[in-house]
Design a protein that fits this description.
The protein is mostly beta strands. The chain contains two helices and 18 strands. Strands 1, 3, 4, 5, 6, 9, 14, 15, 16 and 18 form a ten-stranded mixed sheet that branches. Strands 2, 7, 8, 10, 11, 12, 13 and 17 form an eight-stranded antiparallel sheet that branches. A hairpin with a 7-residue loop joins strand 11 and strand 12. It is globular and about 50 Å long.
Amino acid sequence: MKSTVLVLLVFVWLNLFSQNQTTFNKLVWSDEFSKPGTPDTTKWSYDLGDGCPKVCGWGNNELEYYTQEPKNVRIENGKLIIEAHKEEIGGKQYTSTRIVTKLKGDWLYGRVEVKAKLPRGKGTWPAIWMLSTDWKYGGWPASGEIDIMEHVGYDPDVLHGTIHTETYNHGKGTQKEGKITVPGLMDDFHVYAINWSKNAMDFFVDGKKYHSVTRDPKEDFKGWPFDQRFHLIMNLAVGGNWGGKMGVDESIWPKRMEVEYVRIYQ
């Protein structure tokens, strides 16, 4: 009897382990940013303005106005440049870019991998993240958010990876967040990635896993809405509830985030 129970426990453990260790090795979508000029319009669109009237300041009281002007977004020297400038437009004191793959690159499960170099300075808030494409479960946070990489300039070298859901989100202070200190984080390019499978979300920097979230089988979409397709977003925000928590250094601009590649594997 004991041996039978032991065998069953081992079987269950191996099954769960295999579900959470999915290997994604088929490249299904990528951008290597090899052609100078504007980003490929078959792969990228833009969120423009300041989020008003729906959620002004993009819901975070951010200080930037997003454009698709070349000074804010362009490809040069094999890199995508997202650059924030101190200039007034639309009642905002800064401009920047928020570039998205919605309806041009949308995925359910896989490995999302982005090689990028982050800006330095108080008030910068670069992010590489994902939102639900179809919003099946309702507005934020019910349909989920995956933050592959977030960094706030007042806290140098500290990298954050987080999921938000109806049950677990920063509005309630219940978000499932991992963080790691990477010395010299802003001095070099680093590879930020997630492995997203049916029952787990693993977060990596330069191939090192620093955070993992496993689906609770007892919860419904309120705890795990990640069974729908999501799209990628990359932006450089200025200030905001988190990025501007310690103020904004007005003397440092312009500042840029550089992206060497985006690769999606399934």
